[in-house]
Amino acid sequence: MSAVLCIFIAPICGFILDYKVNRGYTQRILNISIIQTTTWVASLAVCIICMLRSIAAALVAILVFIFTRTMLITGCQAVIATSFPPQFIGSLLGVMWTTAGIVSFVTYGLTRLATNPTHAWIAWSVILCLCLLMGGHIIQLWNLYLKSKKQSKKQLTTNQEELDTLKSSVDH
Length: 172
Description:
By secondary structure, the protein is mainly alpha-helical. Helix content is 87%, strand content 0%. It is elongated and about 80 Å long.
């Protein structure tokens, strides 16, 4: 079921990542930041939903988890492909998946806490803390976007000054 839902979610992620990408680096970073922020908010929602104990909450949590996982994979790989030279992509993807494996290992270790309903909140609290740590990545991405936007504005003013200088030299 999750693979079928990913078939519908992945093109949406691709559309968001490719939206007006021809505008340059700043637009690419903005698109990636939107994907990663959406993933982060959805991850927090999964943690909060899982603390509720009902069948409806479990079904909603599964759907949000599938959405979040697909968005997380596309967003992380887009950050690596955009931010680093092509010769390092394989190594960086290996580091990314190793880190994902470590986090998954920690979360699977928490299933022992979730077997007792009175202690399930501890497991989800730890996962919530992991999601909050992921917030550092979001802050870093938005900071990168704001810096690139500031740099592109500076580049535009420099290009305009050069153009004005050329026009004035042609007129004389």
